[in-house]
Amino acid sequence: MHTTPLDLDLDLATTITREDVAPAELVTSAPAKTPRSITIALTFLVGCVTLLMTGFAIILPVFPQRLQALGLGAETLALMEGAFGLGMFLLSTPMGTWAGRIGRKPILFISLAGFIVTNIALAFVNVPLLFILIRFVEGMLIAGLMPAAMAMVGDTIPLERQGRWIGYLTTAQATGIALGPGIGGFLYQSLGFTGPFLLSAAIALVASLLAIFMVPETLPAHVRLEARTKKARRGSKAEKTATKELNFMGLIWFFAPFLIIDFGLIFTYPFVFPQYPFFFERVLHYSTVQYGLIISTYGLALAVFPLFLGRLSEILPKKPLIVIGSLLFGALNMFMFALPLYPLLLAGSALAGLGSALVMPAMGSIYLGATTDKNRGQVMGMRGSAISLAVMLGPLSQAVIAPWVNPQMTFAIGVVLSLAMAVVAFFLLKTPQQAA
Question: Is residue 236 part of a domain?
Fold first, then answer.
């Protein structure tokens, strides 16, 4: 099997990257088999993620009506969501780093508890600036959820079974996002503005209780002790800063191809999405129900396919899965640009979900397999920063270029982005053995 040396002169161990590394060749701290207690604990972790994402999605359809009732408009909503994305971007990597020092469970609990507090605050504030500030704080606190959850999978699940558990977490996210808006809309009509926020907080409270009592700490005690000992032994502040920057830049360089693919794929749909409803209504003359069905098809595919296809990354080479998945991910935009017939749009939406189902478990398995107990949380935090940056910059980029491009050009750019990520995966993607 072809190997390529990758020398990192950044206080990292010399590593070797491979086109595809067999699970048996990787040295990790994951157990050789998964005890039943770990399976039960991770099942509760998946339940926590599902509950939190449901609570997160419940409040999304309420924000526009809430702001409109206060005499506010789309500008305030854009600032709120931009502040949320900025908060996630700023704290994802630090949260992941702290998860490697104090443990995964405290970070998970901080995210859940922070979501409770911010939702209660959002239920009762009426000041625009406070809306923006609270969403910023919420983004910072919730930034630790997925890095901690993914690190828990890497800590406890052997490499040959990680793909399916990443698929379960992907399904948990998609299921929550699919269920939440409908529940939120119903509660808004029945109970007014505060109902969805209070229910969202209550759901997060249930998830917090599950995290406290049913999800164990997975970071080994000796790793936490070693992190505290190293911190106590470090010298001056300048030396500590230099060491941190050196290690951080080394990890970024090591995982750069994967971070580029994550950013590019996640960026695509937030970038094109603002054009969808107007194109459907004004150009295609489809009803709101037809538009909703296409979006729901994507959400359903994203929820169902990873549940069954996540394990493909356990038995097949990951690079072809990522290349094929990246190509399929652009199917909806391709049909929107070239042949916007309704049956094809439904098929394109399902194919885009299938592409995500192939890419996400494979990418997650590569990240987890190339990390150790010491840096797994930090690396997953870096991935979270790349994803949140893409979510934040996608709609902002569309807002900047919207006066000069029409919807078809936007969809063409979306297709090009998907093709570009497939090319990046084909030529640059190599599975790193392990980052020290």
Answer: no
Q: What is the pTM of this model?
A: 0.75
CA–CA separation, 397 and 402 (whole Å)? 8
Backbone angles phi, psi at 18, to 5 degrees: -130, 155
**Same structural domain, 278 and 398:** yes
Cα dist from 3 to 15, 17, 19, 164, 430, whole Å: 11, 6, 7, 27, 9
Is 161 in contact with 79 (CB distance < 8 Å)? no
Spell out the residues 6+ positions from residue 310 whose beta carbon is closer than 8 angstroms to its own: 163, 164, 165, 166, 167, 168, 170, 357, 361
pLDDT in tens, 99-141: 888 888 999 899 989 999 998 998 888 887 888 899 899 989 9
Using CA atoms, how far apart are residues 90 and 100, in angstroms rounded to an integer?
A: 17
Tell me whether residue 234 is in a domain. no
Domain of 316, CATH number, reads 1.20.1250.20
Q: What is the Cα–Cα distance from 65 to 348, expressed in whole angstroms?
A: 31
